[in-house]
Amino acid sequence: MPHKPQPRKPSVITGRGSRKRDEDSGTDVGEGADDWAQSKATIRPPDQLDLTDAELKEEITRILTANNPHAPHNIVRFSFKEGTYKLIGFVNQLAVHYSHIGNLIPKDSDEGRRQHYQDELVTGSQESARLVFSDTENLEEEEEIKEGDAEVESQIDIPAAEASEKVIEEELMTPKQPKESKLTNQFNFSERASQTVNNPLRDRECQMEPPPRANFSATANQWEIYDAYMEELEKQEKTKEKEKTKTPVAKKMGAMAMRKMTSLESQSDDITKVMQAAKIVERMVNQNTYDDVAQDFKYYEDAADEYRDQEGTLLPLWKFQTDKAKRLAVTALSWNPKYKDLFAVGHGSYDFMKQSRGMLLLYSMKNPSFPEYAFSSDSGIMCLDMHMDHPYLVVVGHYDGNVAIYNLKKPHSQPIFRSSAKSGKHTDPVWQVKWQKDDMDNNLNFFSVSSDGRIVSWTLVKSELVHTDVIKLKVEGSTLEGPEGLQLYTVGCGTAFDFHREIDYMFLVGTEEGKIYKCSKSYSSQFLDTYDAHNMAVDAVSWNPYHSKVFISCSSDWTVKIWDHTVKTPMFIYDLNSAVGDVAWAPYSSTVFAAVSTNGKTHVFDLSINKYEAICNQPVVAKKKNKITHVQFNPVHPIIIVGDDRGHVTCLKLSPNLRKMPKEKKGQEVQKGPAVEIAKLDKLLNLVREVKPKT
């Protein structure tokens, strides 16, 4: 059994009983109290400090702070930026001593409003009951007074309607309760068609009864029609009320304004609805109109090529022109990298004495009668390029030195980006622009070359164009000593450039002096190499799409030259007896290219068939009236497009001899691909040293 502790007896007992015992024992009470006080004063804890009176009287102030004394101050975390552990300066000082989840409800909530409304109902009913009882007491007193007066007066009976008095008393006795407004419950949703209360019918000229709500087969469309009808009816009633208050003059003006607004809205709505259908119908009509051309494009192959000795022809297909670009030359051509039937045409003027407006047009082979997109500019467009990854972005260079970017997704007349004098525009015409890979921050950028000798890199940063001068062209050997030791040099005028397909930093620049410079994006003060290419301005320069060492150039000195960039002399030279406006490599072969001259002819070469002369020389336009300015191969179809100085673009189909593929050998598969094309061109370059080409 556990031992139960006994209660401890108090050593000092105060009160009446203690006084009585003291009297009985004969002991003085005052003496015992003094002993108890002395014993109590001497008791103190063993660890108490012995302080003097001055120390006891000294006031010690304590400052309360929000810092948590138990919070750690030596927390460290790893910094990936510096690669070491860093001490954290900020420590959370919050210490929660007490938390309690309450049941308070905000007044603005639905439950708060509901409870407040119920409280008002209870208090209102109590007050109305009090008022009713007070009114009944007053009426009883008045009735007693009236009865006494009647007995005093000659006991005359006054006629009264007992039934009406009873009704009044009942109405007064029953407290009036206000109507409770039903609060909607978002968690207790009911289908509208399953509700049984019917709306009243309209007493109008044309009554429209809603579908019965008890009918579960009533569809949502019927209710939408009914609601729209009722909303329109309410609008009509409101407008009628407003018209009643208007003056006759205001009514006439309002009616005219309403007619104009409705006509404009209906026109815009009709145009947007019909636009897509009209475009399809227009293409269908054009397909029927140019059905023979479409058949030739798809199926026709010139059978006479079998009887020609390694020669080919060009079959004219469509001719693209519009009245908007009258008297404007074709200054640039470019196929869309995604939609192979779409190409862009830049219109301007090469005559500096006849500079006017410019046009950017985009045609589709599905609709040769009218351009798909049209943009106008104040200055002539001299060059353009379409982005490979974003085919809806088109960059153009103007004759006044500006560059601009158009977005085909927003077909309005203004470009989304445009350079200015503040943003570093060129001071001379921009002759070529090229999109490049995005920079380190994934910003779009492109390059431009101009007659002012600057090659500029443009970057699209947010909503503006940021420019950086990559290199400034200088004519070698033209540096002169000026006064006070100043060095003067002649600025080189850039006319064309092209970037290497594999080496990102390397590019070629052609100049008006006839030289071609091999440059690098990393060096802004010197060239990697210089080629004495032509005697007149270089009109175009282009790297071979297959062979990384070969590029081609053309000039107004009537020549086309093919180069190996590791050798300073040309590998092939061709004289076309007229100024050459443009040259382009074929996308399907490393040895096929086309050139156009100002005498109206298109020349197609295939080095694997004939190294000495073109296998096709065909006039495309009238010799004296017109000049061809540009040429481009389609990336997929066996066609080319050529532009002239009258704004016309002609589409031509290559005959089978102009696009010969390797022949099949018995027991061997036909080898295709870039490696075969590179080997084919390498073989020709090696033969150049043995057989000198004719000029």
UniProtKB/TrEMBL annotation:
InterPro entries, per database record: Dynein_IC, WD40/YVTN_repeat-like_dom_sf, WD40_repeat_dom_sf, WD40_rpt
BP GO terms, sorted: cilium movement; determination of left/right symmetry; outer dynein arm assembly
Localization (cell): Cytoplasm, Cytoskeleton, Cilium axoneme
GO cellular component terms given for this protein: microtubule; outer dynein arm
Residues in WD repeats: 531-564
PROSITE patterns: WD_REPEATS_2, WD_REPEATS_REGION
Stretches for region Disordered: 1-46
GO MF terms, alphabetically ordered: dynein heavy chain binding; dynein light chain binding
Record keywords, A-Z: Cell projection, Cytoplasm, Cytoskeleton, Dynein, Microtubule, Motor protein, Repeat, WD repeat
Top-level taxonomic group: Eukaryota
Pfam families for the chain: WD40
PANTHER family hit by this protein: DYNEIN AXONEMAL INTERMEDIATE CHAIN 1 (PTHR12442:SF11), DYNEIN INTERMEDIATE CHAIN (PTHR12442)
Family: Belongs to the dynein intermediate chain family.
Subunit structure: Consists of at least two heavy chains and a number of intermediate and light chains. Interacts with BICD2. Interacts with CFAP45 and CFAP52. Interacts with CFAP53.
Name listed for the protein in its UniProt record: Dynein axonemal intermediate chain 1
